[in-house]
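Exercise 3.2. Students should predict the tertiary structure of the chain below and write it as structure tokens, then compare their answer with the key that follows.

Predict this chain's 3D structure.
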Amino acid sequence: MKQLKSSSQSTNEDSLHETPTSSPTKLLISSLSPPAKKRATLRMMNRKEGLQRGTISSIRRKFGINLSNTYSPPSSTPSQLEEAIQDFMCRDDVSKLCPDKKKQINHHQIRYRLNHLTVLHQQFETETKIDVDYHTFRRYVPSFIVKPKVDGWGTCLCICCLNPQIKLDKLNQLVSTKPIIKQLLNSMPVDLNELKGENFSVTYNEWQKIKTPGSSSTVSKKVPLVVTIEDFNLEQHLERIHQQFKAAKQAKIDAQQSDDTATMQIDWAENYCIRQAQEEKGAYYFENHVSLHSGYVWLKNNAFSFCSMSNCTNHMAEAAWCSIKDLLDYLINDQQKKQINIISDSPSSQYRNKTTIYMLNRYATKHNITMRWIFLECGHGKGVADAISAQMKRKMDECISFNPTKSYEKSLDFVREIQNSTSIKLFIYDQSHIDEIKKQIPRTLQTVKGTAEFHEVIAEPTGLVFGKKTSDQPQVKLTLRF
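Answer key:
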């Protein structure tokens, strides 16, 4: 009897230490990934009407799967939080458009963030009063808004800035191989300080593209130039860059805070060459070109981009005024603006010339408003206008690619295709409109003395015109003679 009791106790103890065996079905269900388990559940829910009575409760008890709940697929429409974050990130004070036409993500022009995501997250919470954790905020940031790289902005090609930088970089590279260069670099600041007070001429050669006689093509040639040492003063150049950027930024802020002010930034893009989708490679075609004059407008409760298109490839001052005439009429007559600020780069053939000064004065006196034109420093005018023209060129490329059997010959053909699929305001002008502007300009109009040095021109409704060498300097009265 004792042996039987001991054997029975040992068998009971062994049975207690044994792990309970699970069914193969339950083991299979538990090994499935969550997406696979969800797909299997959906298939079973579609066929649950054919199951026997009690099967649903048995499945819920054994496998933890509830077939009684109705499954609603996730909504594809963005939530209010997601829309709020996207609108915030697309603001011009939070991110800026990349001016390169080729840089895009998911068919959107790339925008570069102007700060770290942690800072933008705090700014979003402060402005919108919405409490959202950082990971959710980061998940809802659009994919086309990225962190900028050093060379991602497409900086302007400024010879005054590039030449000293390239020379200094090369000298630093040669320091390790040529010891004498180290001595030159150490003595360079002393020599440069001594040159500040000097006034003499410098002769040097520069590569320039020159048209050959009897041909429209250009050839690179060395051209001797004679300039004064004052032209090599990089400090003044950098100061003008800083002051004009500062004035342009303040003009945008004034437009966003005042009901009576509008600010626009404009720039000519390279002419768009129209190519047909089914043209033969290597065959000669007469190329049609479209002129693009694009920009961005800042208002208090609104901001929008625009683009003026034409078959005429004239980029002179009269064409520039013709391209923005309809926009100015809209701002003056419909929006009732009393001050209009215009920001642009400073090529003398397009913007900074006697025609611009005359037209500023004409608009100011005719409409009883104040007109102000801010010229950015030469070589540093790249901005949002270049990004708008890049968007337009990509839209035009898509028109040709998606309609291979269609022939595009003029700007109006593109406007009809694009105007319903973009938020950019589109304007059209032709040679006849430019001729009308030319008739308004006196033929005897004389050049205003010192125009090449002005970086800001102000025309008041009283008929007075003032100029500034930089926006922080005192204004000087200008006289128009014709």
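Discussion points: The mean pLDDT is 83. The longest strand covers residues 201-211.
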